[in-house]
Design brief:
This protein has 205 residues and is an alpha/beta fold. It has one domain. The protein contains 5 helices and 7 strands, in the order βαααβββαβββα. Strands 1-7-6-5-4-3-2 form a 7-stranded mixed β-sheet. A hairpin with a 4-residue loop joins strand 3 and strand 4. The chain is globular, with a radius of gyration of 19 Å. The C terminus is likely disordered.
């Protein structure tokens, strides 16, 4: 598994997909706003569905400027970039999302069905039946998000294997929001390791 952690490395990798960390954080902001709009009077599933809906909409509103287009092939709601050969789908993942440790990695919170299994490539399509996934030559990537109160985590990752409806391994993980990053993002502080600011004393002669 390849793991991209620091901001320079993350952005360098994302640029290969015509993406960057700030635009994905903007998508997560939309998701967080949807989560915050839920109340105790909503159905219990609202805090899962609404962030997923908002992030999916966010990808489809912000990424067309980067060459992406909406794709609902086989009732699988994604956004794709044919030139780069990828599709991105939003995934509500668990609290291990964004964890920078190599041995810790996220999984989906709810069991997924045949759409995800087929997209990841865990099973062959039934012989003799038409395959609705004509975009299966595109690599599937998940924008994994975890939102729980003020804790917000995210990563863009490519799955490797799914078993019994749960993703069990990843080919590559690109961390967008690690633990503690969201607080810095919301406060406007820089969260990279660019070193201390240097004050220059300018005096008039």
């Amino acid at each position: 598994m390849f793991l991209k952690i620091d901001e320079a490395e993350v952005n360098a990798r994302l640029r290969l997909f015509s993406l960057d960390r700030p635009i994905l954080i903007d998508v997560i902001r939309m998701s967080v706003a949807a989560y915050g709009g839920c109340t105790d009077n909503d159905p219990p599933s609202a805090r899962g569905f609404e962030p997923w809906r908002a992030a999916t909409r966010g990808l489809r509103e912000l990424l067309p400027s980067r060459g992406y287009e909406r794709d609902d092939t086989g009732n699988f709601s994604t956004i794709k970039h044919a030139k780069h050969g990828i599709r991105i789908v939003v995934l509500n993942a668990d609290s291990r999302t964004g964890d920078p440790r190599f041995e810790v990695y996220p999984s989906n919170r709810l069991r997924k069905g045949v759409l995800h299994e087929r997209a990841i490539g865990a099973a062959d399509w039934l012989p003799g039946l038409p395959n609705p996934f004509f975009t299966n030559q595109l690599d599937i990537w998940y924008l994994c998000q975890y939102i729980n109160g003020e804790k917000v985590l995210a990563e863009l990752s490519r799955p490797e294997r799914i078993e019994d409806g749960f993703i069990t391994s990843w080919r590559e993980r690109i961390l967008i929001l690690k633990p503690g990053d969201w607080k810095n993002v919301e406060s406007g502080e820089k969260d990279d390791d660019s070193g201390p600011e240097i004050e220059v004393d300018v005096q008039l002669r």
